[in-house]
Write a structure and sequence with these properties.
GO molecular function, one term: structural constituent of ribosome
Distance between the termini: 60 Å
Pfam family, one: Ribosomal_60s
Protein name: 60S acidic ribosomal protein P3
Helix content: 25-40%
Keywords: Ribonucleoprotein, Ribosomal protein
Shape: flat
InterPro entries: RPP3
C-alpha cells in the first residue's frame, strides 16, 4: 500500500503539486487536471492495487491532495486525523454496526415528530 501526499499551490494560472516525501510532482491549469496527473504520477510509482484520492483546499491558492494506492478492498475507507484504520476486524464489527443502525432509526423517528412545535405549516 502506498500513501502519497502532495502540497498543491496556484501561481498565476498554473497549479503545481509536489510530494511531501520523494520527488513526485506535476502541474496543470486546473485543480481537476492536476489531480488526474498526480494520480497517474503516484500510480506509476506504486501500482499495487485500487486508487483512492482526496483533495482539500486550504486557502484559495493552496491545497493538499492525497492518493492511497492498494488500500482496503470493497470501496470502503475508514479513517481520519493522522492515522487511518483501513479495515475493521471481523469478530465484533457486524453486531456493533447493527446496533448503530438501530440507534439511528430511533433518532430519525423522534426527529420526524413536529407535534410539539405548536404550529402547522398549513395554518
Amino acid at each position: 500500500m502506498g500513501v502519497f501526499t502532495f502540497v498543491c499551490r496556484n501561481s498565476g494560472d498554473e497549479w503545481t503539486g509536489k510530494s511531501i516525501s520523494g520527488d513526485l510532482e506535476a502541474s496543470a491549469r486546473s485543480t481537476f487536471e492536476l489531480q488526474r496527473k498526480l494520480v497517474q504520477t503516484a500510480y506509476s510509482a506504486d501500482s499495487s492495487g485500487g486508487i483512492q484520492s482526496s483533495f482539500s483546499l486550504v486557502t484559495p491558492t493552496s491545497g493538499v491532495f492525497q492518493v492511497i494506492i492498494g488500500g482496503a478492498s470493497g470501496g470502503a475507507f475508514i479513517g481520519g486525523g493522522g492515522g487511518a484504520s483501513v479495515a475493521a476486524p471481523a469478530g465484533g464489527a457486524a453486531p456493533a454496526a447493527e446496533a448503530e443502525k438501530k440507534e439511528e432509526k430511533k433518532e430519525e423517528e423522534k426527529e420526524e415528530s413536529d407535534d410539539d412545535m405548536g404550529f402547522s405549516l398549513f395554518d
